[in-house]
Amino acid sequence: MQPPVKNGFNVFLGNSTEWRLSNGPAYLNSPTAYIEPESVTLDPSRAFLKDVKRLIVKVGTAVVTRSDGRLALGRLGALCEQLKELNSRGYEVILVTSGAVGLGRQRLRYRRLANSSFSDLQKPQGEFDGKACAAVGQSSLMALYDTMFSQLDVTSSQLLVNDGFFRDAGFRKQLSDTVHSLLNLRVIPIFNENDAVSTRKAPYEDSSGIFWDNDSLAGLLALELKADLLVLLSDVEGLYSGPPSDPNSKLIDTYVKEKHQKEITFGDKSRLGRGGMTAKVNAAVCAAYAGTPVIITSGYATDNIIRVLQGDRIGTVFHKDAHLWAHIKQVSAREMAISARDCSRRLQSLNSEERRKILLAVADALENNLSLIMEENGVDIADAELAGLEKSLISRLALKPEKIAGLVKSVRMLADMKEPIGQILKRIELADKLTLERISCPLGVVLVIFESRPDALVQIAALAVRSGNGLLLKGGKEAKRSNAALHKVITSAIPEKVGDKLIGLVTSREEIPDLLKLDDVIDLVVPRGSNKLVSQIKESTKIPVLGHSDGICHVYVDKAANIDMAKQIVKDAKIDYPAACNAMETLLVHKDLSETGGLNQLVAELTKEGVELYGGPRASGLLNITKTSSFHKEYSSPACTVEIVDDVSAAIDHIHQYGSSHTECIVTEDPEVAETFLRRVDSAAVFHNASTRFCDGARFGLGAEVGISTSRIHARGPVGVEGLLTSKWILRGSGQVVDGDRGVTYTHKELPIIA
């Protein structure tokens, strides 16, 4: 008998549980597959997704049902919503679903319970026939899909098939024509094996035939219907290197037949269905090597199908060309962190002048590669504009020549700073000829997660080199090309004796959870972004976190302010760079200025500059402006909140209630009021008669900054080189021993610090 499918894909193997590629050996013959950790590339394994138009999604029994056998309505609803979204985007979507037998068994059990007397229930209850369960469950399952899709204004259709049908060439042609017609009508075809009339003796035991479960049916349909992608939804994230419950197991990103074929071991099959991971791997291997790429991923997440098509690195990819990607090594999160630490120790072993020359080389490299950096940044900006991102975000993303020149200047300033490593901070004579010193030293390895501001990458990298730290960087995806270009330029200037892995660039958000587990390798995490991001990071790691919170900065104009000075400060604080975290977001004005005309002058100055004003309860009515939805709001754009307060104490209370402990300013000519404000305001930076925009590492003379910390431990405000240092104790003796403190006479005398 000729195999029913083309492309050398033979799926008819009699009573065997194996699938066989006509150009390769059979090798899968047990339930759950475990293989060794992956070491192949990531990015090429998603490139094919841009060409996907027709996809098949297979959802298994373990996804469709809960652990108690009842339907998982939430997961089914999320599945239908995703398929509706894809359908509306123009994708041709085909669904292969399991669950009929389980649903039918549940309904029959309920019916038997409802119709049984108490004495009947005391008798042993036999198990239901699987085919009867399938017959009852199939109509219920389709009714549920029909109801859900109808609520989403989508039409679905049912197609029940048996493996014997595929022996008939006429059937296969008619099937293809019918599905083609349905897809042209924007109808979602829903396939399931018709277990009720299957010729197999027992659906869960007999694996004979052209296909024997819905995984193999999905693989067969992917080839028959010429799908561009097959997505197999499982109850785990993909194919793991060991049992998914084992914390040492790693998710396999890309399956390479030549590497993994002989490394497979097996465990249990699915708790509910017929196959589990083995069935999925069988189907995935056969479909992929016959021409249809496959991704196995979790069906428990509400958006994984959408994320797969967006190119997110989730699940496990099966592709016939995967072996061509294998020469590019995938570096694990741990390997990246360990490499950064090793390089940092080599960097620390250099003398001060050698480290200085590295920074000067980085500055030169940035200047010499200006055109490359600008070109890549231009692509990021174009993509951001096409995606409709806010102007404030695009402003942060842009790298103009003058901004790069400023970065180069900052790097050179850092190079010329006093050597920060090995500085003696304290000297104590513990006893005669026993001297204790505390000296500065690097933290070790720092992970910085920052927003879509590529200039931040340069500042942070330069600080890492100056402070002798290893560095891992994860920037916003909107700046991925700019970040990649800057990273390449900077690491090219690091000498081989240190190693370019001193600074690692994390390219996928999926790597972040693995990095956050490495509290034995990474010493500090610096998340730059919203309070939500900082909170999520803190909840996800044991590593110390230096939180960079929202930038809700206030300017309070006192009744004793010089109004002309106040106008200039308020304008600069808002207009100089509205997207900056140190830009003014709330203007607080003493109530007396609303009567003397000072408030109107300040508002007029902002309005003249095109600032959109929102008012608090008092200011909105008086100025006839829109009432703000919240005082705790960071606009990051030419907009701000205005409110009237009774006095300096009311201003301080407002700042403490609604601020983010970032930067605050008072404008006043009354020194007593100014000192009250400076002493009592509990923020990282508090200014008198100066714009909030001065809160910046470069302007503070720090050379650059990792970010502006609103934490109260270790570092606060602009975090420069000092914020990336810790200390260690050096004890210099002459043979002393403790011996119960009997042989030592302690002096504990402070000694002068020798420069």
From TrEMBL:
GO molecular function: ATP binding; glutamate 5-kinase activity; glutamate-5-semialdehyde dehydrogenase activity
Catalytic activity, as annotated: L-glutamate 5-semialdehyde + phosphate + NADP(+) = L-glutamyl 5-phosphate + NADPH + H(+); L-glutamate + ATP = L-glutamyl 5-phosphate + ADP
Entry GO terms, CC: cytoplasm
Tagged with keyword Kinase: yes
UniProt keyword annotation of ATP-binding present: yes
GO terms for biological process, alphabetical: L-proline biosynthetic process
Alphabetical list of InterPro entries matching this protein: AceGlu_kinase-like_sf, Ald_DH/histidinol_DH, Ald_DH_C, Ald_DH_N, Aldehyde_DH_dom, Asp/Glu/Uridylate_kinase, G-glutamylP_reductase_CS, G5K_ProBA
Start and end residues of each Aspartate/glutamate/uridylate kinase domain: 53-298
Domain Aldehyde dehydrogenase: 329-604
Cross-referenced Gene3D superfamilies: Acetylglutamate kinase-like, Aldehyde Dehydrogenase, Chain A, domain 1, Aldehyde Dehydrogenase, Chain A, domain 2
E.C. designation(s): 2.7.2.11, 1.2.1.41
Signal peptide stretch: none
Keyword field: Amino-acid biosynthesis, ATP-binding, Kinase, Multifunctional enzyme, NADP, Nucleotide-binding, Oxidoreductase, Proline biosynthesis, Transferase
Pathway(s) it belongs to: Amino-acid biosynthesis; L-proline biosynthesis; L-glutamate 5-semialdehyde from L-glutamate: step 2/2; Amino-acid biosynthesis; L-proline biosynthesis; L-glutamate 5-semialdehyde from L-glutamate: step 1/2
Function: P5CS plays a key role in proline biosynthesis, leading to osmoregulation in plants.
Family that this chain belongs to: In the N-terminal section; belongs to the glutamate 5-kinase family.
Name by which UniProt lists this protein: Delta-1-pyrroline-5-carboxylate synthase
Organism of provenance: Arachis hypogaea
